[in-house]
Amino acid sequence: MTQTLLKITGLKVAYGGIQAVKGVDIEVREGELVTLIGSNGAGKTTIMNAITGVVAPLEGDIEFMGTSIKGKGSWDLVKQGLAMVPEGRGVFTRMSIAENLQMGAHIRNDTSEIATDVERMYGLFPRLFERKDQLAGTLSGGEQQMLAMARALMSRPKVLLLDEPSMGLSPIMVEKIFEVVRDVSSKGVTVLLVEQNARLALMAADRGYVMDSGLITMSGDAKAMLGDPKVREAYLGE
Hints:
- The structure is a single chain.
- With 238 residues, this protein is of the alpha/beta class.
- It has one domain (30-44, 73-235): 3-Layer(aba) Sandwich (Rossmann fold).
- It is 38% helix and 27% strand.
- The chain has ten helices and ten strands.
- It has helices at 44-51, 74-80, 97-104, 111-124, 126-130, 141-153, 171-186, 198-204, 222-226, 229-235, and strands at residues 4-15, 18-29, 33-37, 59-64, 67-68, 82-85, 159-163, 190-195, 207-212, 215-221.
- The chain has a six-stranded mixed β-sheet with strand order 6-7-8-3-9-10, with helices on both faces. A four-stranded antiparallel β-sheet has the order 2-1-4-5, covered by helices on one side.
- The chain is globular and about 45 Å long.
- The termini are far apart.
- The relative contact order is 0.18.
- The mean pLDDT is 93.
């Protein structure tokens, strides 16, 4: 039986008096690419923020590798093997691409292995290699998204959290980002993907969850969900 790496149970989160997440259960098993889809305001990013300790849950628990991580800071989570690529990318704009990648490895001290991983990132994202001495703030949105993903992978995470990686990108860049997501997943990194582009997310994923108004309304095999009439009507525009 494959190990469950990330388990969310009965999660409730509120902002002020508004309950954004209303009792959610999500499970991500080792080696899976799991996607969470839903419209704007459904509560998807709130779940990511609860996992990474940005917001405190009202109720419920979040376990990583069998241990509760509720209330843990991002530094502890990265050390444990949980890396996040936030919506909006969050790259260090006044640092070069090369320096950003080194920052991604800040919890590590295996210098030669870090150098190997930097080369691996340049292989995954050739465009970053071409611009490695440029300041991250001078990159396009798509290039910054590539850099944010590469920087997160430099910590060698057990689970990679991706929040809306395709947001604001050109169709060509969206295809490239999803190609990399599938490649990373195929190499054994477990991925939880929050994404508005439901079609591409479900095509890439093993399993999916649909979120609406703070609740999980459907879950199951991602390819089966692609063919579900309700999903097609609500999220695929068919």
